[in-house]
């Protein structure tokens, strides 16, 4: 039997061949639900596949978080073949690790339009638009149902870690005929099985969770940091729940000045009220914490104002000891505690703590991309055209202008960074922005240049880092990206073929530049 001709049963129905049922007919389905029709037939050398064309290969999406699944939803709507690869054992695995944290942004901004269009026919109802979900609710009420819709379910592989992306048959140094080779994605399954997948395009939406910045200064780990692991907690521990016993009645040092640090500090303050002996120290490198405190009652961002006001009160009340201008130079263990040595304007100082929470931000995993040609900004490690729009020295969430496929493209044809990973080391990412990124990328892959170049953002005209604060001010937290959310407003449409403008102002000093204005705050 030729591989190009379907084999038939006596009753005239087509038998399976090359890993698919009804081979070479309109009713083709993969025998293995984790493999696409084209992938199964390509790997088996089967017919009905034009191996000379990358169009016969799937688009591989790395990461089954909100942005990765949004990419899948848009690919499904466009009728493009795709696979979603997720290192965790469930969709939204990274978010599940901080499921106790509540987002800044309400549900209105946490779901993708194409995803909603796939979900609604299944009977799914969108949660209340103005409610702030926790990470666990985002997974339970949105990502998990989305992963089960027929258009996506068979195309998602969990427990599959991507360890490298390259060009099939050539390394990063090869230029001649480079684009004639499809992309190749190397994966490792939970059982250690290594598999190479060929792709027409790759959208890396794997995020930055799990790749934390070090505690040491100058971007480097402090001497002794590797040996201090038993004393180090992740950036968003569940202080009042799962991890309570690790913190109650102990001395905790929190390092960092972002919203992750603020939420952990406030949880620790609540814990200390009912757990005698709990001590909280907060160390920051900056001379000012005004950027995190916000503008108080004058702040146009209610959630940020509530968070900053509560944190300021806890410091002023003595519940939290704040140490400014503290730069960690080395770590050592002594007497069962961790000795954190650092420099201050007054000289060297040693802090002794039982546990250190490193809320120092994240950086992207670029090791897996060494064999693809990237064009990254040397400062932010973001795509070079996007970098000036998100530079944390000058931008917060509210001043990042909209952007799409053209800003996210690299010299490597068909390869894109999307979502939080596209922002590199900048902590200013919003879910709504990520959804628009992948909508634009998928439109370009489908050949719809006009749609790819027109960004439609449902964002406020002023201040995309705000939301209505909860009634009791008790649950203020971070966006999935460790940034912030948005407040209701009319949609804003910006054509990327025209200058993107200055972004959306929040009325506050933005980025690191604001730290110099209030050195004693």
Automatic annotation (TrEMBL):
Gene3D superfamilies: FAD/NAD(P)-binding domain (3.50.50.60)
Residues passing through the membrane, by range: none
A single GO molecular function term of this UniProt record: monooxygenase activity
Record key words, sorted: Oxidoreductase
Coiled coil ranges: none
Name used for this protein in its record: Pyridine nucleotide-disulfide oxidoreductase
């Amino acid at each position: 039997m030729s591989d190009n001709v379907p084999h038939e049963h006596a009753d005239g129905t087509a038998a399976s061949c090359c890993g698919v049922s009804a081979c070479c007919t309109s009713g083709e389905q993969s025998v293995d639900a984790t493999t696409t029709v084209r992938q199964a037939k390509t790997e088996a050398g089967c017919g009905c596949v034009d191996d000379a064309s990358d169009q016969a290969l799937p688009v591989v999406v790395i990461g089954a978080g909100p942005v990765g699944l949004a990419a899948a939803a848009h690919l499904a709507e466009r009728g493009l073949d795709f696979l979603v690869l997720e290192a965790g054992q469930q969709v939204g695995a990274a978010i599940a690790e901080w499921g106790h944290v509540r987002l800044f942004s309400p549900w209105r901004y946490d779901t993708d339009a194409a995803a909603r269009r796939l979900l609604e026919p299944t009977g799914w109802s969108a949660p209340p638009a103005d409610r702030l979900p926790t990470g666990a609710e985002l997974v339970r009420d949105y990502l998990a149902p989305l992963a089960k819709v027929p258009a996506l379910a068979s195309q998602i592989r969990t427990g599959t870690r991507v360890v490298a992306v390259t060009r099939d048959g050539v390394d990063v140094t090869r230029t001649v005929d480079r684009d004639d080779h499809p992309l190749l994605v190397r994966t490792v399954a939970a059982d250690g099985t290594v598999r190479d997948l060929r792709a027409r395009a790759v959208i890396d939406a794997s995020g930055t969770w799990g790749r934390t910045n070090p505690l040491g200064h100058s971007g480097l780990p402090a001497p002794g940091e590797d040996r201090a692991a038993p004393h180090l907690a992740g950036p968003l521990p569940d202080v009042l729940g799962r991890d309570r016993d690790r913190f109650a009645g102990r001395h905790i040092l929190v390092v960092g000045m972002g919203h992750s640090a603020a939420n952990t500090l406030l949880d620790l303050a609540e814990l200390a009220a009912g757990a005698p002996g709990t001590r909280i120290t907060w160390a920051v490198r900056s001379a000012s914490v005004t950027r995190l405190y916000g503008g108080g009652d004058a702040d146009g961002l209610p959630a940020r104002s509530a968070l900053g006001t509560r944190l300021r009160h806890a410091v002023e009340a003595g519940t939290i000891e704040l140490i400014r201008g503290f730069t960690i130079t080395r770590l050592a263990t002594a007497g069962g505690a961790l000795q954190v040595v650092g420099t201050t304007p007054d000289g060297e100082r040693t802090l002794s703590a039982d546990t250190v929470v490193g809320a120092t931000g994240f950086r992207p995993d670029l090791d897996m991309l060494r064999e693809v040609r990237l064009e990254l900004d040397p400062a932010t490690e973001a795509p070079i055209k996007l970098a000036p729009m998100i530079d944390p020295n000058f931008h917060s969430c509210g001043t990042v202008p909209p952007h799409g496929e053209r800003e996210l493209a690299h010299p490597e044809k068909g390869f894109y960074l999307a979502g939080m990973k596209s922002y590199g080391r900048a902590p200013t990412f919003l879910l709504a922005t990520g959804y628009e990124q992948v909508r634009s990328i998928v439109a370009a892959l489908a050949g719809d240049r006009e749609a790819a170049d027109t960004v439609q953002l449902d964002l406020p005209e002023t201040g995309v880092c705000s939301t209505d604060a909860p009634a009791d001010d008790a649950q203020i937290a971070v966006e999935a990206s460790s940034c912030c959310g948005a407040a209701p407003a009319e949609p804003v449409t910006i054509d990327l073929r025209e200058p993107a403008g200055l972004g959306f102002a929040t009325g506050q000093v933005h980025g690191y530049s604001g730290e110099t204005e209030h050195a004693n705050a």
